[in-house]
Amino acid sequence: MLVQFLTIALFHALPAWSLIHWLPVPAGPWLWAVIAFFSTQVFLLIFGRDVAFLKEGTAARSVYRLSMLSFVLILNLFLASAVHLLIRGIIGIAAWKIAGTETLVPVFSLALLFVSGGLLNARKLTVRRVSIDVSAFPESWKNRRIVFFSDTHYGTLNGPGMAETLVKKIESLNPDIIICGGDLFDGPKGRYGTTLAILARLQAPLGILAVLGNHDYFYLSRPGSSRELLQRQRSREEMPMGGETRLGAVKKALSWHFLENESVEIDKVIFAGLRPFSIGDEKRAQRFLSELDAEKPTILINHKPQQVEEAADAGVNLQLSGHTHGGPVFPANIVMRMLLKGRHFGTTHHGKMILDTSSGSGISLWYPRTAGRHEVVVVEMTSGDNRI
């Protein structure tokens, strides 16, 4: 914790110093205001999410929202400070007489505008279409449409309004089957009842399938001691997920088929879903994958774009994942693309298997969204001539 605190404090120190030094901020109330602002951001970033888990109510949700906004805000102010230092270095070498205020104000203003644009971008929901070769599937699947969404994170930042937008968007796409890739809910108790009533309107001829995301596994395991559940989540112990928990209430409200290391056959196609979050669940997920029938056309739903090689070896035709939000903050999206080797967003090929990773349909810890868009994915089953 000490190392984390010092690292984050240093991360805040550069923009704070830039303001104090280059404006310059005079000693007195303005100086203390700058110090208080950045000190508050440090504590929000470190403790904001834990507060939201350990407590419930409007205050806890507000702290969570502020902690998420703080991360992106400070990241952009840090980058702006680094750019400003580079500009001042060039000015110094060229011996130009330009005051620090004349360079700092526009650079920091651009950073704040960038973050503001991210706030607006986070409220948009787009549609991305993917065409999949249907030749490996039964003839009846030709021209069928799968609508996939994930990472809505209802409960903390997202509520009934965004759920209404999602439902209307999906209804307009006329899906044959709807799939939820997890992280449906997140955070302390919000307007769950109203949101569930909106989601319950979703219908599709072949039904609605879903898997749990890590946030579902974390937050829907209540009731129980918040502190105990927080510790169990960090150590990857198995969480209580029975009928008495919030997950039980969600399953009761929605006529969706939640797949938890299990599969269901729909019109001669296997739909399999993983739940690999605790250590025990991950072992069961690996065993479940190894037992899949490679001779049958299979679509795998896995919240995270993981177990990819194992799924390909098991004969899976298509894996649908989310979790990454496509790298929703610049420049973290570039880092994520490198670390995940392109699996962070969009379509990648792994032998005969296609992995499609969605950028998600809702706001999460990475807020505001300064890279990419929220989306609903339409998987269209087409002839071999139109395949990816």
Q: Could you characterize the architecture of this molecule?
A:
This protein folds into 2 domains: about 1-120, no CATH class; about 125-385, Purple Acid Phosphatase, chain A, domain 2 (4-Layer Sandwich). Helix content is about 45%, strand content about 15%. It has 12 helices and 12 strands. It has helices spanning about 1-20, 30-55, 60-95, 100-120, 160-170, 190-200, 215-220, 225-235, 245-255, 280-290, 310-315, 330-340; strands spanning about 125-135, 145-150, 175-180, 210, 255-260, 260-265, 270-275, 300, 320, 345-350, 355, 375-380. Strands 1-12-2-3-4-5 form a 6-stranded mixed β-sheet. A 6-stranded mixed β-sheet has the order 6-7-8-9-11-10. Strand 10 (about 345-350) and strand 11 form a beta hairpin. It is globular, with a radius of gyration of 23 Å. The mean pLDDT is about 85.
